[in-house]
Amino acid sequence: MKRLELIGVEGIGEVKLGELVGKLISDACSRLNITIVDSDVLVIAQKIVSKSEGRMVSLEEVQPSERATELGRELDKEPALVEVILGESRSIIRTGGRALIVETHHGFICANAGVDQSNVGLKKVALLPADPDRSARRIREEIRSCTRAAPAVIISDSFGRPWRVGTVDVAIGIAGMKPIKDERGRKDRHGYELKAAVAAIADEIAAAAELVMSKTDGIPAVIVRGCEFEKEEGSAQELLRPPAEDLFRRF
Q: Which of 72, 68, 70 minimizes the C-alpha distance to 83?
């Protein structure tokens, strides 16, 4: 019988600059009598990773450019916030309403370059990790050092989606798993050869974990147990659609 288990890791507390996220999670699991195993996938909210890496900005220290001031007026956003978003962006994809859709330096297409104002204090914002894959690999090694287990690690963040209402969590950093499940060429139960069966399994796991991981309940890490995945070094870059194939950019 197939069974998927989502285990919220509580008691991690407020993460500070320089703290080892992997050790904090391992210590919390120890207090909760949770044993991490190699077959687990550990999903970690981007916010605590950014806090530990010092990816925080005080808006009071930001001097908006003329472009940021103009966009802020157009989008009804604070110019200092827009300046930070522009600094984290490779290019602007869309503007309209209050939305600023950009391509980040990582290659992610998302709102506001992932710059987040929640759970960081007044007049402060959190930026995405500079290299989320590298962060995931480091956290995995920290957990291995503390527990002798090496689960796959996903760093997740909430992204909106074209043509769909609401956000879902997706993988922005990966270590220890192949993020894509490609079943093309296999046959279904009726003998039909699958031609488009490519699943973003890392995103699916991140979205499932978000059901337990809450912005208000203080659960920034979730162990996903019972999910089948292919082990390899992995990278969230594998999930990015090439620009030439991205229909969203053509409209």
A: 68
